[in-house]
TrEMBL record:
GO biological process: putrescine biosynthetic process
InterPro entries reported for this sequence: Peptidyl-Arg-deiminase_porph
Originating organism: Luteibacter rhizovicinus DSM 16549
Pfam families referenced in this protein's UniProt entry, alphabetically: PAD_porph
GO molecular function, one term: protein-arginine deiminase activity
Name assigned to this protein: Agmatine deiminase
Signal peptide, first to last residue: none
């Protein structure tokens, strides 16, 4: 069995070397609403570069120039921007990017098999994204481990202390032939974790990831858990998210104590041609010195930002307009992947 003590999956609030994103273009699923979604990417770039480096994957030189002009106009710090030309199917870097473990001797890039969320979408180029980064000199020289097992970064949450939080619905969809015990062992071994906590409830309409944990519940810097709640008894999510809240209340920390819980407000339903979109406030991104919070143009945006800020004390709270993102079933955290500070050492 792998030595679980040699590495660990750091919490997102630990120091970072930068954030990795991929710029949308006409050959991605964003083609029909490219201008709209670019407004989110531009705002994200301006926000991230206030605090740390931003690595932007682009398909070609023309897209690189388009992105450069857009973020320059928005006031992004170009001295902190690094462009990487690389082919990709889509822009959900949380799920196709490297899951980076840290240890006393450096880092380990875990490269899990990316299947387009259980075969829903083509993913050949995205599955090769990490090897492409290595071939182009990005992350070069770092230990890299290809793991022939389907897992997305949005499907796991780490407290940095050996605990992984995940959802049964997602992992069971990816591996229907495997028992929970087998999957627990695989997660614990490859992520060098001490324990895996499972949620059996929780979902969002408009989410095609099969209930990724990063749309539902997140470990917080104050030792608690931030989660997406629903207080509207008439909403179809009310019972399921209520059951998820009860599950979270029953979980215990490594010290055997209940987790302080931070329920997030529920945005009014956002529809696109009659289709409900997944407007989760739990899908926020932590960077050095700040937490970037999705905003949907809803009156609950400010309250969500306030609660997330309290759960991550001492950080500036920056709202990023994310309404265009949920058209393609994801939000702020989904399009990013942080790189731990140890990568740059």
């Amino acid at each position: 069995m792998t030595d679980r003590t040699s590495y660990r999956l750091p919490a997102e609030w630990e120091p970072q070397a930068g954030v990795l994103i991929a710029w949308p273009h006409a050959d991605t699923d964003w083609a029909d609403r490219l201008d709209a979604v670019e407004t989110t990417y531009v705002a994200l770039a301006a926000a991230v570069t206030r605090f740390e480096p931003l690595h932007i994957i682009v398909a070609d030189a023309a897209l690189r120039e388009r992105a450069r002009l857009a973020i320059t106009e928005a006031g992004a710090d170009l001295s902190r921007v690094h462009f990487i030309e690389l082919p990709y199917d889509d822009t959900w870097l949380r799920d196709s990017g490297p899951i980076t473990l840290t240890g006393p001797d450096g880092v380990l890039l875990n490269d899990y098999r990316f299947t387009g969320w259980g075969g829903k979408f083509g993913a050949e180029q995205d599955d090769a994204l990490i090897s492409g980064l290595l071939e182009r000199g990005v992350l070069s020289g770092l230990p890299h481990k290809r793991i022939d097992w389907a897992l997305e970064g949005g499907g796991i949450e780490s407290d940095g202390r050996g605990t992984i939080l995940t959802t049964w619905k997602c992992l069971n969809q990816r591996h229907p032939e495997l028992s929970r015990e087998t999957m627990t062992e695989t997660l614990a071994t490859t992520l060098h974790a001490d324990r895996v906590l499972w949620l059996d409830h929780g979902y969002l309409e408009g989410d095609d990831t099969d209930a990724h944990i990063d749309t539902l519940a997140r470990f917080s810097e104050d030792g608690g858990i931030v989660y997406q709640a629903c207080d509207d008894e008439s909403d179809p999510h009310f019972a399921e998210l209520g059951q998820m809240g009860s599950e979270l209340a029953a979980l215990r920390s490594p010290e055997g104590k209940p987790y302080p819980l931070h329920p997030l407000p529920w945005a009014e339903p956002i529809l696109d041609e009659g289709r409900r979109l997944a407007a989760s406030y739990a899908n926020y991104l932590i960077v050095n010195g700040a937490v970037l919070v999705p905003a949907y143009g809803d009156e609950k945006d400010a309250e969500a930002a306030r609660i997330i800020g309290l759960a991550h004390p001492g950080r500036e709270v920056v709202q990023v307009p994310c309404r265009p993102l949920i058209w393609q079933n994801g939000s702020l955290h989904c399009i990013t992947m942080q790189l731990p500070a140890a990568i740059a050492q």
